[in-house]
Design a protein that fits this description.
Length: about 120
């Protein structure tokens, strides 16, 4: 039996993580993330000078999307590549996130958490 979605975020501080990109492809959505790892995480390394977190690249992949709502925030700097997360919630097949990029609400058949 696979791990629950919530357990896949063990030792990851999602609200201190950042969104790097939103990629839409057919009935799939991929969120490129820099996850903020907590000291208990197996891949944790002490943050360098001037860094507040041990950031580790990863992906959230949603497949078989039956409902999707994206509301892009007004961006003042088009070169911006990292967006802070304000709220993050996954329950069953439902996902909601608000961040500086905008808001994402969806329902998907498959939700996968991948770390690189």
């Amino acid at each position: 039996m696979g791990k629950s979605i919530a357990s896949r975020f063990d030792n990851i501080d999602v609200t201190r993580s950042v969104l790097r990109a939103v990629i839409i492809n057919d009935d799939e959505l991929t969120l490129e993330m820099d996850f903020c790892l907590e000291p208990e995480h197996a891949d944790y390394e002490a943050p360098g000078a001037g860094e507040e977190c041990c950031f580790h690249p990863g992906l959230l992949k949603f497949a078989g999307i039956s409902k999707l709502g994206l509301d892009r925030a007004e961006q003042t700097d088009p070169a911006r590549r990292r967006f802070a997360i304000q709220s993050f919630h996954i329950e069953g097949t439902k996902f909601d996130m608000a961040c500086e990029w905008g808001t994402i609400h969806l329902q998907a058949r498959s939700i996968r958490v991948l770390t690189e």
